[in-house]
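Batch manifest line 342
LIGAND: KG4
JOB: complex structure
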Amino acid sequence: MSLILALETSCDETAAAVVEDGRIVRSSVVSSQVELHARYGGVVPELASRAHLELLVPVVSEAVAAAGLDVARPGLAAVAATVGPGLVGALLVGVSAAKALALAWDVPFVGVNHLEGHLYAALLEEPGLELPVVVELVSGGHTLLIEMSGPGRYEVLGGTVDDAAGEAFDKVARLLGLGYPGGPAIEAAARGGSPDAVAFTRPMLHEGLDVSFSGLKTAVVHHVRAHPGTAVEDVAASFQAAVVDVLVHKALAAAETTGARGICLAGGVAANGPLREALRNACAARGLSVFLPSRPMCTDNAAMIAAAGHYRLLVDGPTGLGAGAQANLRFPTGAAAPPRPT
Ligand code: KG4
Ligand code: ZN
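JOB STATUS: finished
ARTIFACT:
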């Protein structure tokens, strides 16, 4: 049995989890800082770092205890941490703590790419996921279409050329005075509006597998200025419908291009109800399988980091303690990718 303790502090969630053999979640603790940042309308990096410092020890203690481990001798195979991408000050808290714990317990340290972690969220919940699969990773910082083509082999098929999908939700929510985080706020407001009220542009709909959300955001700004009488609920529903249309269209196009048998969502925006429903219906109509991780697995958590860390340790071995945090770390592609869970 191989137990990995992972720490995730790349943005505004302080999380720790223990995962057995890369697939059994023994514990997963997430402490969200959303309320701390809400009054500023977005994540304040300095505040996030300080909050991680305060929250990390109790969160790790809870994860270790909930996994039934003895903190003096937890019997871990390794301690993993997200090394990037993310806010560098926030990342450093988790990376430094993980290295210190690894030294204290005399076990290896494993650095994990946060984006690769999001892919493992799907595999944790659906170990039998039929490959190749197209993963649409839609979060606050990233929008990527990835083909997972075999045991852990990834190819980036497309991505955003400007704003990430979650960023677009957050910016439009701020514009509409709906608060932070914007995704859930827009989804809630949209329930009271009509998706057909405003015919917003669907940028780059038929142009390859990249997406763009900046023009859509600008279209919302222009509409609100020109038609201040339009109900906020109608603007929210129409904006959300445009984003969902684009994301579903691109995921289907990616499956067609690659011959993938199914589509999987990952990242915070994957929690969006209308997106989940539209993708489920579109896949059913085309005979494609669809996998939608549970909402807690869509948003940031440490169980997905532990699962990715398990396979990184198997394939790459321990990460040197000299390795630092990398704010702009890219999605890992290439030969040394880890195998899927068995
Ligand atoms: O993956 P995540 O938790 O953190 C990052 O790594 O970015 O994603 C957070 C993003 C935010 O932009 C948030 O507004 C968006 O996911 N989000 C949603 C929903 N829940 C969270 N977007 C649309 N609908 C939702 N229900
Ligand atoms: Zn994330």
